[in-house]
């Protein structure tokens, strides 16, 4: 039987979750003895969300999936595929996906394909691509897919600790979506690197070479952007050469906000190197001294960085800054990070301004795996406005979080560290500090079996 591809496959609904508690980065600078401004200005971070021992990757995924299905009135039987992307591994065999099947038990729907995918922060994008691919394949049975990503990003005491965070995203994937992934416009770069990895299976903390990780991130960005440009130009030869002007917004995986600002400068530097002499004179006047600069030689070249940061400042302000809201307020969520950027953009821009627009997406996971692709926003303004209005809860919830002193944050990190993989174990973290409708770890029995409960719902605040 031949069947046409379903039209406009993409994201039909999106749900975000972040921790109910945070530590202030200015206070953390003082507590850590870092120079004033290092975390807030140097890294561009204001607050860092964190989870006590009451939450783990399973509970984050249970909460975000339950919320998405409830708030969007999706029946459990309407889901035919569920993919999870995470790097927060609590079991080397049993998947998070299998834990999520508890939510579907009452409906009797066990016919749900998909399983977990892991590669650092890239797993969420792999989950999304798998979900899209299924719907565009001969295996599709007409139901929706769910792409879920969640992580708890924690670092040992030291330079990397302020770049932690936590969160989860669930995306309902199907045809006729308000956010459509553009076909044929995916550019991927994968390579073997030891920039950030988790070889100690008994610890939540990664082994990280900070400087190398930044170089890997920027070089993967260069490669993906150049490949995306080639694919775009091949697919749309009638358009003028692709450059940053072809994106109405660009979102990035965000380990810390300052790196994203530098990344916009980096893309501008790529445009500079690739454009014609005439364009160079028009668009990049005054930057002729960099005509002989190279990508490889410039990862830590302060002159190149500064010049293109300045040159791209307006682009950054217009196309990317708004997408950094959650990253600035919560920190690095790992796999959900780039999708929290999407949510931030959607809630910060009047919906009418994004109708019919193209959003560039750069996803990066250490180790390394990276992709650049683009999302086209539907032309149907009323469909899009309805889609965005479902995110009305995000700002009030962000403002309802509880600030915790760095001393207490540090103690809670020690509790996580000491009891990682302990069994039997009963968590001690506060349940009343959690948002309504949050799944939490009740206990771990002597056989390492985890059980969860949920805080009461509160429909009035839109999150239940
Ligand atoms: P560090 O080496 O201690 O920091 O750690 P630094 O000394 O480089 O300072 C950071 C910035 O603050 C610098 O800015 C300083 O100048 C500035 P830059 O010069 O680079 O523009 N600074 C100040 N600014 C204002 N006032 C002050 C001040 N003091 C200094 N008083 C590092 C930084 C990011 C390396 C560390 O936090 C780390 O290792 N983090 C984890 C790794 C990471 O986030 N890497 C990013 C790319 S890899 C990635 O994205 C993947 C990842 O998400 C994992 C995954 O895929 O799963 C991490």
Topology:
Elements: E1 10-17, E2 21-24, H1 25-32, H2 38-42, E3 47-50, H3 57-71, E4 79-85, H4 96-100, E5 116-117, H5 123-135, E6 144-153, E7 165-174, E8 179-190, E9 196-197, E10 207-208, H6 210-235, E11 249-252, H7 257-274, H8 277-283, H9 302-311, H10 313-319, H11 325-330, H12 337-348, H13 351-354, E12 358-365, E13 369-377, H14 381-389, H15 394-399, E14 402-403, H16 406-419, E15 439-444, E16 450-454
Helix pairs in contact: 6-7, 7-9
The structure holds 3-hydroxy-3-methylglutaryl-coenzyme A.
How many extended strands?
16
Cα distance spanning the termini: 43 Å
Taking all Cα atoms into account, the compactness measure Rg is 22 Å
Q: Helix/strand-derived class?
A: alpha/beta
CATH superfamily: Thiolase/Chalcone synthase
- Give the proportion of residues in helices: 25-40%
| Morphology call | globular
How would you sum up the major sheet? 9 strands, mixed
Strand proportion? 15-25%
CATH topology label: Peroxisomal Thiolase, Chain A, domain 1
Looking at the overall shape, the CATH architecture is: 3-Layer(aba) Sandwich
> Which molecules other than protein and nucleic acid are bound?
3-hydroxy-3-methylglutaryl-coenzyme A
Please state the average pLDDT score: 96
Number of helices: 16
Give the strand order of the largest sheet, numbering strands 1, 2, ... along the chain: 5-4-6-7-1-8-13-12-11
Architecture overview:
By secondary structure, the chain is an alpha/beta fold. The protein has a single domain (10-454), classed as Peroxisomal Thiolase, Chain A, domain 1 (3-Layer(aba) Sandwich), CATH 3.40.47.10. It has helices at residues 25-32, 38-42, 57-71, 96-100, 123-135, 210-235, 257-274, 277-283, 302-311, 313-319, 325-330, 337-348, 351-354, 381-389, 394-399, 406-419; strands at residues 10-17, 21-24, 47-50, 79-85, 116-117, 144-153, 165-174, 179-190, 196-197, 207-208, 249-252, 358-365, 369-377, 402-403, 439-444, 450-454. The strands form 4 sheets. Strands 5-4-6-7-1-8-13-12-11 form a 9-stranded mixed β-sheet, sandwiched between helices. It has a 3-stranded mixed β-sheet with strand order 3-2-14. Helix 6 crosses helix 7 (257-274). The chain starts with 9 loop residues before the first strand and ends in a 10-residue tail after the last strand. Residues 459-464 have low confidence and may be disordered. It binds 3-hydroxy-3-methylglutaryl-coenzyme A. The site of 3-hydroxy-3-methylglutaryl-coenzyme A has 28 residues, from helix 2, helix 6 and strand 12. This is Hydroxymethylglutaryl-CoA synthase. It catalyses: acetoacetyl-CoA + acetyl-CoA + H2O = (3S)-3-hydroxy-3-methylglutaryl-CoA + CoA + H(+). Pfam families: HMG_CoA_synt_C, HMG_CoA_synt_N. One of its GO terms (biological process) is farnesyl diphosphate biosynthetic process, mevalonate pathway.
């Amino acid at each position: 039987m031949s069947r046409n591809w379903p039209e406009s496959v993409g994201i039909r609904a999106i749900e975000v979750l972040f921790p109910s508690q945070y530590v202030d980065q200015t206070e953390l600078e003082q507590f850590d003895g870092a120079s004033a401004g290092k975390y807030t200005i140097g890294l561009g971070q204001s607050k860092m969300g964190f989870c006590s021992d009451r939450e783990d990757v399973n509970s984050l995924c249970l909460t975000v999936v339950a919320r998405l299905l409830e708030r969007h009135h999706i029946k459990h039987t309407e889901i035919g595929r569920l993919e999870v992307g995470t790097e927060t591994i609590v079991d080397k065999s049993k998947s998070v996906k299998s834990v999520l099947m508890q939510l579907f038990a009452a409906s009797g729907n066990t016919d749900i394909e998909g399983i977990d995918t892991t590669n650092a922060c890239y797993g969420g994008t792999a989950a999304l691509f798998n979900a899209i691919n299924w719907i565009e394949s001969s295996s599709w049975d007409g139901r929706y897919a769910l792409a879920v990503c969640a992580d708890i990003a924690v670092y040992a005491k030291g330079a990397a600790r302020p770049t932690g965070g936590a969160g989860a995203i669930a995306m309902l994937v199907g045809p006729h979506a308000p956010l459509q992934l553009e076909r044929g416009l995916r550019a991927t770069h994968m390579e073997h690197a030891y920039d950030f990895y988790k070889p100690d299976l008994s610890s939540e903390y990664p082994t990280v070479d900070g400087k190398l990780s930044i170089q890997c991130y920027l070089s993967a960005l260069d490669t993906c952007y150049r490949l995306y440009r080639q694919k775009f130009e091949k697919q749309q030869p009638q358009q003028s050469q692709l450059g940053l002007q072809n994106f109405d917004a660009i979102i990035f995986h965000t380990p810390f906000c300052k790196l994203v600002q530098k990344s916009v400068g980096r893309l501008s530097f790529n445009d500079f190197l690739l454009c014609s002499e005439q364009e160079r004179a028009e668009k990049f006047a005054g930057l002729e001294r960099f005509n002989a600069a190279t990508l490889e030689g410039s990862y830590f070249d302060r002159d190149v960085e500064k010049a293109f940061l300045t040159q791209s400042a307006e682009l950054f302000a217009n196309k990317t800054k708004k997408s950094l809201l959650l990253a600035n307020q919560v920190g690095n969520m790992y796999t959900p990070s780039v999708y929290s950027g999407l949510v931030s953009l959607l809630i910060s821009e009047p919906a009418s301004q994004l109708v019919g627009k193209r959003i560039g997406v750069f996803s990066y996971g250490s180790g390394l795996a990276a992709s650049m692709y683009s999302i086209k926003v539907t032309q149907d303004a009323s469909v899009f406005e309805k889609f965005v209005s479902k995110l009305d809860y995000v700002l009030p919830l962000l403002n309802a979080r509880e600030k915790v002193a760095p001393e207490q944050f540090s103690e809670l990190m020690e509790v996580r560290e000491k009891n990682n993989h302990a069994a039997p174990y009963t968590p001690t973290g506060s349940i009343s500090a959690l948002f309504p409708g949050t799944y939490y770890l009740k206990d771990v029995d002597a056989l390492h079996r985890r059980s969860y409960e949920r805080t009461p719902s509160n429909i009035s605040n839109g999150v239940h």
